Amino acid sequence: VGTGSFGDGRTWRALSFVVALPAVGVCALNVWLQQRRQQHPRAPFVPYHHLRIRTKVGVMGSGASSTQGR
Q1: What DSSP string runs through 24-45?
Q2: pLDDT for the residue numbered 23
Q3: Residues 6+ apart with CB under 8 A from 17
Q4: Residue 12 near residue 6 (C-beta atoms within 8 A)
Q5: How far apart are CA 25 and CA 65, in angstroms?
Q6: What value does the CA radius of gyration of the chain take, rounded to a whole number of Å?
Q7: Residue 1 has pLDDT above 50, yes or no
Q8: Taking the domains of the chain in order of start, what are their residue ranges?
Q9: Which residues lie closer than 8 Å to 37 by C-beta, 6 or more apart?
Q10: Whole-prediction pTM value?
Q11: Are 46 and 38 in contact (CB under 8 A)?
Q12: Mind listing the pLDDT tens digit for each residue in 11-51?
């Protein structure tokens, strides 16, 4: 079975280190710089009741509880 030009794992490893990791670093730097420059206060919490309708029976038996945040 012949491998194509991108069949070698070394090519993908090199692309990951040369392209993907620096791109993630640049994105993280951009977010960090934007957060430092623009400090917006958090909007006040508005309890929208239509978004909190619990009708399904969950894993724990109650529709109001979840497995996360216990």
Answers
A1: HHHHHHHHHHHHHH--PPPPPP
A2: 96
A3: none
A4: yes
A5: 38
A6: 23
A7: no
A8: 10-38
A9: none
A10: 0.45
A11: no
A12: 888 988 999 999 999 999 999 999 888 877 888 999 888 88
